[in-house]
Hints:
By secondary structure, this protein is mainly beta. Helices cover about 0% and strands about 60% of the residues.
Amino acid sequence: QVQLVESGGGLVQTGGSLRLSCAASGRTFSISTMGWYRQGPGLQRELVATISSGDTTNYADSVKGRFTISRDSAKNTVNLQMNSLEPEDTAVYYCNAEALVRGVFRSFWGLGTQVTVSS
Length: 119
């Protein structure tokens, strides 16, 4: 199993910045892709950004140019630098890891961290 713990959420004004971090523990050697997803009020959970074990990144169009995902495989962490935040970015942000368990890739989730952007 893989355990994920997020940190770094909070309240920020429009145009501000926040940095989210996610620490993985457990079967970290089996992790391939890691990423961040978010769920706004009344909305479905959506992809924000992912990063592969080879550091290939993928971003939602809504955050391109504002958010940057990075990964420290030695420390088993993934970070999300969020700049130029907008009220539409308000959501619970979840860390995700895809890990190989008994020959099958499984998805693991953190409990989430709240990000609130005030206008």
